[in-house]
Amino acid sequence: MAFAPEGTKIMQMQRLFEMVYLLTERGHVTAAEFAERFEISTRTVYRDIDVLSSAGIPVYTCKGKHGGIRLLGGFTIDKSLLTEQEQQDIMASLQSLSAIEVPGAEQTLTKLAALFGKKRTAWLDVDFTYWGGGTKEREKFALLKQCILRGEVLAFDYYNSMGEKSARTAEPLRLIFKGQDWYLYAFCRKKQELRIFKLSRIKNPVGTGETFTREIPDTPYTGEDHPFNGVMVPITLHMGEQLAFRVYDEFDEENITKNPDGSFTIHSDFPQGEWLYGYLLSYGDQAEVLGPPEVRRGIGERLKRMAAFYND
Q1: How many CA atoms lie within 13 A of 109 on its CB side?
Q2: Structural domain of residue 145, as residue ranges?
Q3: Which of 15, 60, 156, 157 is 20 to 30 A from 6 via CA?
């Protein structure tokens, strides 16, 4: 008697396992669809169905326009000792991983949805790119995510806050969304320390093919490429009603006072640094810095320098 190699048996078991999950999730699958998915013949598909049936799985075939291979209604696989809430939590977590395209998450989500006898709910959709970011931005995010998950060294050109360009090689550890901008947290091999890189200043990124192993520390994000030096400044702003969309987008309700004329008074802490003035000036002539005096003076000085450009 001839015996199938051990590897072949394992492959068949994996195939049978996935067949049951697919049938549980979809309701029915044709033999041709199974054959195409697993790259086997329809004859092998029907042999697998016989194996499942003999193992006590209530699988059957039906003919006709909507025919195919089905499971008896109400069949679910043993869901172990997990409570309903635990099942919901696991499904929600896996959905979030699937949304950011973590390798294997989609397949695992499909299997567990069948295991728990639940319909999948696409409650989360994640697009990391900016509005209007275009194909290049999506490709950049996809590459960074791939390098982080694989532990692959990244090479890129970087422009610092002074506009100076330098070639960098870094070990990417994490993507960070902070203050309405995306950053890459990575170990910079040029500087030999952990740094924060603003994604909009990263140009021409490529994976090097070299892998690395590094633990992500619990210490705060630091480094000269980080826009925040750790010092917070309390700012008071008066903003026109035309800026309402930004007021509620960018500030907590507890920091907002709406005035009788429709304008707003904002009390909030901001990170100290040159970027602060650029941020405040982005409100244009619809906002006034009321305090502190040194920041108000700093805004005035910059406005004078800007006005000098237009004194023809």
Answers
A1: 21
A2: 135-211
A3: 60
